[in-house]
Design brief:
Layout lengths: L3 H11 L1 H11 L8 H23 L3 H31 L5 H7 L1 H11 L1 H4 L16
Length: 136
């Protein structure tokens, strides 16, 4: 029987079902204002939940760190999707590259710093540890 963090991780992994269903239903409407960004936001939120659930199931430092890095990737994807969904929906027009490119500078820089952390230690330092439940 699942209890504690294992039960929570199982529920997080089950979020794939309703969000996957919504993504499939929304795929045909992705050309509506905000539609493609809503699909991106849902995909980011699903990846976020799955990676967090996997982090709770992993006990090793390397796998938990990888899962946490992926959580940050998917949080960024969800944020960008929600931001552009709101912009497209309120402006009622598709967001062009002149708006997308400047907004993506900070998320891309954060991802570069995140995945090159072993060179500088800005995100995870030597004092970073994983407890017995696999939580970073």
């Amino acid at each position: 029987m699942l209890v504690g963090t294992d039960l929570y991780a199982a529920f997080l992994l089950l979020t794939v079902l309703p969000t996957g269903y919504l993504i499939c239903r929304l795929w045909d409407h992705r050309e509506q204002p905000g539609g493609r960004w809503f699909v991106l936001a849902l995909s980011g939120a699903t990846g976020w939940a799955v990676c967090w659930g996997l982090m709770l199931l992993f006990n090793g430092y390397t796998l938990s760190l990888l899962s946490m890095n992926l959580v940050i990737v998917f949080v960024t994807v969800a944020f960008v999707g929600m931001l552009f969904m709101a912009i497209e929906y309120t402006w009622r027009t598709h967001v062009g590259y002149r708006i997308i490119a400047p907004v993506l500078v900070v998320p891309v820089a954060v991802q570069l710093l995140l995945w090159t952390n072993s060179l500088h230690g800005l995100f995870w330092g030597p004092e970073t540890f994983v407890d017995a439940r696999g939580v970073l």
